[in-house]
Amino acid sequence: MRINIDKCSAEILDIGYCILPGHFPRPVLETCREAFLPLLADVADRIPDGNRGARRWAIGLPFAAPFYHSGFFNDDTVIQIVSRILGENLHISYYGTDTPAQGSEYQEVHADLPFLFSETPHHRHPPALLAVRFTFVDVTPENGPFEVAERTQHLPRAEALEKVNSGEIPLKQLMLKAGDVLITDPRTLHRGTPNRTDTPRPFAVIVHNRHWYYLEHHGRLEANENTPILTESFYQTLSPRERSLLRRVPRTPD
Fold first, then answer.
1. 181-184 and 129-135 strand pairing
2. Which of 134, 139, 124 is nearest to 18 (CA)?
3. Torsions phi, psi of 61, nearest 5?
4. pLDDT tens per residue across span 150-182
5. If residue 81 lies in a helix (H) or strand (E), which one and from where to where?
6. How far is 12 from 8, CA to CA, in rounded Å?
7. If you write DSSP's letter for every residue of 225-252 in order, what string do you get?
8. What's the CA gap between 60 and 250, in Å, rounded?
9. What whole-number distance in Å separates Cα of residue 231 and Cα of residue 65?
10. Is 84 helix (H, G, I), strand (E, B) or coil?
11. pLDDT level of residue 131 (50, 70, 90 thresholds)
12. How far is the C-alpha of 90 from the C-alpha of 83, rounded, in Å?
């Protein structure tokens, strides 16, 4: 399916996100799902209450097989959209997942990062980073869809939260299929919802940054701290563009 780069970029800047339907191959996502379930089980044994609310886990993923696929990180369309907004020479800082299981609850409505200029909350500026999100399974109303409040990235945070919590700005559920790619401005207010099924719902995110922007906590794998983020030997097998994108990810000598 041909993607209109201009339209997607404009949607991100306007409502806070765009969706690329059926963009990633489902068999690759199924491989990731199968590999992820034992990791999730291990983390759930160590952190049974969850680390993002009840029965909800944020788990960092290594830039390595079986979770690393060049199609996720080196996709021409995704890179064109992201670089259209963030500029050239961008870099990737983080790869991880958010996974609610049965017993999870509604998250508080939130954004994933603050505005750059807290002293001027009414100042509107373009995003410093974008999140490329995709699910390993089809999302249904029962298994914890992602909800987003459109255009709230344009408002001061307190005002946006007040309008969402009062219902003036509605929360929209995004029923993503495995293969759909969701590109978001993480300042846009959103929340996770309960998974009422007996099957976990893994939701992956790859964080792209302007060349000058970096978040310190992205240098570790949450709930998966003993796993190297990126080994030097694997890094050297990647294409030149992938090496450039991952140039600021901490690498472990072999």
1. antiparallel
2. 134
3. -115, 145
4. 999 999 999 999 999 999 999 999 999 999 999
5. helix 76-86
6. 6
7. TTS-S-BHHHHHTS-HHHHHHTTTS--B
8. 14
9. 11
10. helix
11. very high
12. 7
**Closest by alpha carbon to 126, among 214, 211, 12?**
12
Question: Is the distance from CB of 103 to CB of 193 less than 8 angstroms?
Answer: no
Q: Which amino acid is at 199?
A: T
Q: Which CATH fold topology does 20-245 show?
A: Jelly Rolls (2.60.120)
Is the per-residue pLDDT at 50 higher than 70? yes
- Residue-range domain boundaries for the chain: 20-245
**Which residue type, as a one-letter code, is found at position 149?**
A
Report the alpha-carbon distance of residue 208 to residue 186 in Å, rounded. Answer: 11
**Residue 32 phi, psi dihedral angles, 5° rounding:** -65, -40
Q: Are residues 129 and 206 in contact, defined by beta-carbon separation less than 8 angstroms?
A: no
- Does position 219 have pLDDT exceeding 80, yes or no? no
Among 113, 183, 102, 111, which residue's Cα sits nearest to residue 144?
A: 102
Would you say residue 212 has pLDDT above 70? yes
Helix or strand (DSSP H, E) at 241: helix 240-245
- With bands split at pLDDT 50, 70 and 90, how would you rate the model's confidence at 1? low
Q: How far is CA 84 from CA 89, 119, 138, 165, 254, in A?
A: 11, 28, 29, 32, 36
Residue with tokens 């007996």: 198
